[in-house]
Amino acid sequence: MKALGAALRSPRGRIIAALILAYAAWQVWLTLQAPGKIAPGFPPDRERVNILVTLPFPPERFHVLVFQRYGRVSGTDGNTVEVRGVNRAQLRAVARHYWVKRVEPLPMGG
Q1: What are the residue ranges spanned by the domains of the chain?
Q2: What is the torsional sign of CA 56, 58, 63, 68?
Q3: Helix (H) and strand (E) counts for the chain?
Q4: CA–CA gap between residue 51 and residue 105 (Å, rounded)
Q5: For 27, how many CA atoms within 13 A lie in the half-sphere containing its CB?
Q6: Distances (CA, A) of 47 to 36, 43, 50
Q7: How far apart are CA 80 and CA 2, in angstroms?
Q8: What 3-state DSSP class applies to 64?
Q9: d(CA 72, CA 67)
């Protein structure tokens, strides 16, 4: 505990502590925002769902590659990305990305 107290008394220690606190606050904020980005209407009886992810900008290759971690990307249209076969438990993980505006079920015709 003496070492921690000494570290917090130094300017470098306070900067590091502030950065750690800011990072933790950012992670908490992302976690709290994720459920609000998920639209209702996903079938309750399905383990895997098809989703439409809306971004505030046209997706780039990076975003498509990130979404491929969760399922098969079947296309993009404007600011949206279609991802098929996403495990229902992964919906919050998809929505947790700060650049995701909305996650909703892919319409049946899509």
Answers
A1: 2-36, 38-105
A2: positive
A3: 4, 4
A4: 5
A5: 6
A6: 20, 9, 10
A7: 52
A8: helix
A9: 8
Cβ atoms of 86 and 94 closer than 8 Å: yes
The answer to whether the beta carbons of residues 82 and 73 sit under 8 Å apart is yes
Question: Cα separations (Å) of 56 from 1, 79, 101?
Answer: 46, 6, 6
- Give this prediction's pTM: 0.82
- Taking the C-alpha atoms of residue 51 and residue 38, their distance in angstroms, rounded to an integer, is 10
Return contacts of 63-71, CB within 8 angstroms, 24+ apart: 63/99, 66/97, 67/94, 70/94
Tens-digit pLDDT profile for residues 10-50: 888 888 889 999 999 999 999 999 999 999 999 889 999 99
pLDDT tens, 39-58? 999 988 999 999 999 999 99
d(Cα 71, Cα 95) in Å, to the nearest integer?
14
Instruction: Work out the angle at residue 86's Cα, subtended by the Cα atoms of residues 76 and 82, and round it to the nearest 5 degrees.
Output: 10
Beta bridge partners of 83: 51, 73
